[in-house]
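INFO  loader      accepted 1 record
INFO  loader      residues=191
INFO  predictor   begin
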Amino acid sequence: RLNLRRRGSGQSNAAPSPSRSASGSSASSSPSKTAAESQTPRPVVKHHYMKTLEEFVMNPGSPTKAEAVEILLGKAIPKKFLSDLVVWAVSFACDRDFKAHRLVAELLVEMRRSKRNPVMQANDMVLGFEMAVKRLPELQKDCPSAHSVLKLIICHCHEAGCWPKDELEEMSDEFVALLGLKGADAAAETA
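INFO  predictor   done
INFO  writer      dumping tokens
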């Protein structure tokens, strides 16, 4: 459940729910939550996300991964932009060093696998990586190593169990090829 707040008011749009399911969503949904989510413009979402991502990567430990996820949950991130978070993270990582690539990958894992309240679901993450794969030629114009950066982040998230292993059939061939599973898994399954 996203903890939505109106800009400038400091008040939550919905009353806090003491009962949460294991997935982090509240037992009831609020109509005002949907209205607030749909009103948050994409540039505002991107600005808040990129500031949090940069703070996490440039000052490791402040905030921690869990704190960064809590910060993101405190922002109004509409569901329609969750996949964009992955694309923005990959683009951000392409401009940084190897240590930053790993930190971005770890934060994405935490955003998906947070025990308290994940920022995104598996389908949001997979869709975001599919979007990043489609943008790869554009990313490689600015960052020739974008392919290896994207592969590192995707493989890290895959190994961390961010989406079910059996969802590979629904993914594009380019996405599966980046994981390096096309030939190896098919051979292992037939053996």
